[in-house]
Structure formats: C-alpha cells, structure tokens
C-alpha cells in the first residue's frame, strides 16, 4: 500500500469528545469516524485489523469443531416473547416495526435464533455435539454510549453456541472454548486473564470472563498471587470472617444528633466500623428490601439481586424509607415490619453491634442478630476488598482493572426448554439440548489492545493484528536513487508476505515518522543516503525502540527475523 493512496486521515489534535486512549488514538490515526453516538465507520486501517482479529478467532473456533454461519440482524419479536426476554430487555433493545406493524428488534444477541435453528433440524443425539458461530454486528441501545468502541451501540461480536446431550458433554464443549479463548487472545498479542464470573460451587464455575488487563478497564477484578483464583469483583466469593467472641449485652438506644454516616457514627460513638451494621434500603419490583453488611463493607448489588431473584434493585427513596417507619441515616433492621431483610454472612456473626434505631437522631447499641431481629435470608452479599482472604487458599487478594473482551457461559437448558429444542437420546427419550454460549467482542478487542499497547506517540500494535507490519520512509522523495531503492524494498517485502506501506507522500520526513508512530506500524524502515552510499538500511522497532542496521545483501530475511522479535 502506498501512503499517498491509503485512506488514513490522521489528526494532529486529540478530539475533545474522546475520553479514553483507544478512542483518541483511533480517531487521530484515521481508523474510525463517528456516525452517531456509539456508532462508527471503520476506515481501512481499522477494518484490516478487525479482519485479522476475526481470522484468528475463526481459526481457533474451527480448530475446536466450530462451524461458521450467519444469522439475521433483524429478529422477530415472537421468539423473544417465547423466552420471556422481549419485556426483560427493556430500553437496551433497538425495536422496530415492519410495514404491517409487526414487532422486530435489532439483535443484541442470538440465543433465540440459534436455538430455533437447532430445534428445527436436530432430532437425535447422533447430531450432537454441535457448535455453531457467527461474526456479526450486534445492537444495544446503551443509555450512555461512551469510550469509543468500548461501549458502542453497534459493535461486532463473535458468538458461538454449543448444543450437547448432557451436562458432561456441555462441560467438554465449555473447556474447549476456554482453551480456544486463551489461544485467541494470546495470538492477538494480548495479556489476558480469565476470571470466574459467577459465584457457583467452588471449582465448578459455569461462567468465565476474559479480561485484558489495563488501567483504564471498566471492570474491577480480584486475583490471588498464590493460586490461580481470579474473579470479577461483583462475582467474587467471600469466606465468612472471624466472629467476635463476647457475651451479648442488653440492647439500648443512644442519641446521635445529626450523626448519620458510618464514619460519623464510628467517630461519635468511638466504635470501629466493623462492629457496625450498615443497612441499605432498596425498592425491588416486589417489595422493600433491607440489605445488611458490616460497616466497613459495601453491598454487592449483583449478589443481592441474584439471591432475591429480582430484576429491579434501586435505592429506596426518602419517602419510601419514611413509609416503612424509618429515617435516612438512622435506618436499621430492629423492629421494622413489611420489609424483606437479607444479611451478609459476616453481619450474622456480629455481637453487640451498632445500627440505626429507626428514630430520628438515634442509634442502637448491643444489637445481636437473631436475638434482636430476624432475617429472610443470610448470604454472601458484600463486595470483596483488597486483602480479603482468597476463597481458594486464604492468602490476601489483590485488585486490578480489566476490559472484558470475552465471556463464556453455560446456559444449560434455559433456552432449549423455553423454545422446546429437544432431541431423542440413546433410549429414544426426548430431552432438551444442553447449551453454552461464548462471545468475543471483536471491535472491543481492537480497542482493548490499544489500551494495553500505546505510548505518548501513538499506538504500538502487536504484530499479529497490526494493520501493516512495516512502513518505508524515504528521507527525500526528490532523490531518485533513494526512491528507486525504496520501491525495490517495498516490492520485495510485500512479496515475502511482510505487509508494508511505502510512504511516498510529498511530506517532510518528520511528518511521516510522526504518522508512523501514531498508526503504530511494528517496524519503521528508513531509506536515506546510507542505503545509497553504504548499502545499509535502518530498521527501528516501534515497541522497543531498537534500531538495526541491516545490510542490503539479505535484508528481506533480516527484516522478517526482526519482525518476529518485536
Ligand atoms: Zn489463592
């Protein structure tokens, strides 16, 4: 590709709308342009990168027995009604009507369609296992699309669905994908960590997220440096902490005028937050919920939702708190009726704790769970914190940030049951197919790889997904000998499979070097007077800055060898 021909309009200034590095650099490097909030055109450089990522994914999916197909973007509402998701999906779903007034959506995911496909044609256990996948646009009407390709409304995903005859066979398919995902991200040149994404039985997790480790990551993860445990913070399991050994004392009230927060109460009463009960009131679609955690902990709303099996969990309004007979800042579990109380395991082990008295300006002392209040449910509902014990080995956990680029999930029979996708087993018995789904955000992987690989000058593409491997910069385009030689190198490298751009633009070398760094070609080849006079080409690695002076005798091999080391 000649740079004079390449459509990669670079920008000198960082566009104000771009909040994260990947968004800024993709705009500046002439890779993407915005059409609407969260909806982008991928210009030629980005499209080339996306195709490389897609091909790596294809090869790894095919290697595990996956078969590619393509499903429709426009999906009929009836299928979504059958699985109950037409209503559940809410405003995130792009909905439309056809000329006859029939409801459709732009697919946010494809479980309904693929299950219907399998249902139509799979009859016998002999047709299983089956793995079908596509690489396709997906649509989610995010309330706040942001961070460029990180949280778009239209994005490219690979989604694979597995169909198996039983739980063991599903586990085999799941582990194949777990393995394939590790390979995909490694081949893309990314540092990626699989984390457990649900709090299921120890060792038997039914879901993993694949996280590209990056400071700017939206997801907080915990990991153990002693064992290989790693989990999304929202999903991390927690061991109950040590209980206090102390005889219970008599419940009493204490005046705490205008002292409301945990920190204020702790200071005012001179009591550690870990001896206090933090009570958070929520409104669900069913009832009012009080979630209790220790004063030094935070409520994990994902876990509360799962434990209570509710769809909505919003902080209760001041009025709602009044209606149940309490006051913001002085709420507690003792004596409140018509509420569902769920407590963290750690709360139930407290002795002589402090909590709000449900009276203005009052707290209670010597509160003892079970004696002074009862709960509907005790569960693990707090957020893990740095230095909490690892649920596997007990060592203190560490925190990191990551960008979720992949997610694998055991669906089991959720969709096959809802859509009656059954098969006949060896004994002629009809059974629902056991399913798994496995996604990779393709556009997000491109953005995440920039978040992990950049410096002040621009992007540093890992070689396997770089749009081109090298760029040739002649120092003077007026110098015929230089241009002739640069042309020769250009032809020879491309012929050898080293994808090379020839920067033949009528620009100063400084401009070309800046663009080369911004776009992030792994190798920069300078063709100057040295080549003509001494027979030496200068090649520089974008990542390490290493410069090699390569003799023109066998430069194609030498450059190929250099490319393997950058
Ligand atoms: Zn551990």
What do these coordinates show?
This protein has 566 residues and is of the alpha+beta class. It folds into three domains: 21-236 and 399-451, BirA Bifunctional Protein, domain 2 (2-Layer Sandwich); 252-379, YbaK protein (Alpha-Beta Complex), CATH 3.90.960; 468-565, Anticodon-binding domain (Rossmann fold, 3-Layer(aba) Sandwich). The strands form eight sheets. Strands 3, 7, 8, 9, 10, 11, 12, 21 and 24 form a nine-stranded mixed beta sheet that branches. A hairpin with a 3-residue loop joins strand 14 and strand 15 (288-294). Zinc ion binds next to loops.
Share of residues in strands: 25-35%
Give the class from helix and strand content and strand pairing. alpha+beta
What name does the CATH topology of the largest domain carry?
BirA Bifunctional Protein, domain 2
Alpha-carbon distance between the two ends: 22 Å
CATH class of the largest domain: Alpha Beta
The biggest sheet, with number of strands, parallel, antiparallel or mixed sense and barrel status, is: 9 strands, mixed
What ligand molecules are bound, each kind once?
A: zinc ion
* CATH homologous superfamily descriptor of the largest domain: Bira Bifunctional Protein, Domain 2
Rg estimate, integer Å? 29 Å
Q: With helices defined by DSSP (H or I, 4 residues minimum), what is the helix count?
A: 15
């Amino acid at each position: 590709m000649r740079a004079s021909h390449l459509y990669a309009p670079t920008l000198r200034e960082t566009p104000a709308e771009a909040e994260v590095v990947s968004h800024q650099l993709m705009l500046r490097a002439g890779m993407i342009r915005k059409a609407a909030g969260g909806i982008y055109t991928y210009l030629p450089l980005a499209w080339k990168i996306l195709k490389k990522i897609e091909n790596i994914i294809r090869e790894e999916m095919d290697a595990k027995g996956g078969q590619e197909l393509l499903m429709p973007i426009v999906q009929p509402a009836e299928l979504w009604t059958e699985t109950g998701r037409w209503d559940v999906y809410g405003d995130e779903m792009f909905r439309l009507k056809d000329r006859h007034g029939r409801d459709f959506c732009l697919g946010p995911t494809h479980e309904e369609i693929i299950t219907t496909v399998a249902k139509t044609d799979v009859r016998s256990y002999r047709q299983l296992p089956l793995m079908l996948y596509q690489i396709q646009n997906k649509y989610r009407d995010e309330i706040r699309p942001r961070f460029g390709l990180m949280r778009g409304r239209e994005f490219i995903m690979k989604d694979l669905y597995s169909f198996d005859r039983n739980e063991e066979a599903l586990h085999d398919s799941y582990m194949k994908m777990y393995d394939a995902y590790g390979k995909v991200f490694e081949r893309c040149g990314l540092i990626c960590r699989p984390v457990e994404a649900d709090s299921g039985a120890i060792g038997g997790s039914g879901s993993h997220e694949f996280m590209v480790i990056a400071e700017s990551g939206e997801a907080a993860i915990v990991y153990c440096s002693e064992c290989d445990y790693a989990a999304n913070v929202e999903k991390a399991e927690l061991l109950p902490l040590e209980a206090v050994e102390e005889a219970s004392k008599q419940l009493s009230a204490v005046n705490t005028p205008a002292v409301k927060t945990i920190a204020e109460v702790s200071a005012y009463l001179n009591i550690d937050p870990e001896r206090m009960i933090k009570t958070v009131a929520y409104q669900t679609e069913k009832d009012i919920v009080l979630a209790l955690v220790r004063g030094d902990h935070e409520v994990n709303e994902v876990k509360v939702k799962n434990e209570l099996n509710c769809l909505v969990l919003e902080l209760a309004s001041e009025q709602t708190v009044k209606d149940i007979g309490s006051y913001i800042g002085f709420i507690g579990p003792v004596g409140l009726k018509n509420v569902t109380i769920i407590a963290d395991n750690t709360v139930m082990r407290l002795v002589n704790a402090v909590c709000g008295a449900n009276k203005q300006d009052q707290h209670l002392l010597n509160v003892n769970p079970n004696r002074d209040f009862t709960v509907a449910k005790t569960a693990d509902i707090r957020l893990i914190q740095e230095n909490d014990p690892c649920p596997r080995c007990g060592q203190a956990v560490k925190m990191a940030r990551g960008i979720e680029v992949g997610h694998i999930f055991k669906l089991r029979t959720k969709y096959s049951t809802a859509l009656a996708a059954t098969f006949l087993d060896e004994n002629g018995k009809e059974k629902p197919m056991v399913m798994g789904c496995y996604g990779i955000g393709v556009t997000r992987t491109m953005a995440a790889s920039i978040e992990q690989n950049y410096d002040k000058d621009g992007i540093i593409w890992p070689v396997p997904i770089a749009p081109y491997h090298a760029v040739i910069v002649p120092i003077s385009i007026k110098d015929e000998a230089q241009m002739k030689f640069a042309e020769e190198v250009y032809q020879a490298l491309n012929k050898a499979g080293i994808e090379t751009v020839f920067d033949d633009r009528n620009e100063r070398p400084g401009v070309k070097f800046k663009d080369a760094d911004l776009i992030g070609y792994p190798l920069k080849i300078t063709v100057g007077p040295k080549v003509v006079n001494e027979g030496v080409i200068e090649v520089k690695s974008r990542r390490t800055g290493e410069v090699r002076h390569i003799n023109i005798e066998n430069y194609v091999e030498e450059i190929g060898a250099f490319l393997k080391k950058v």
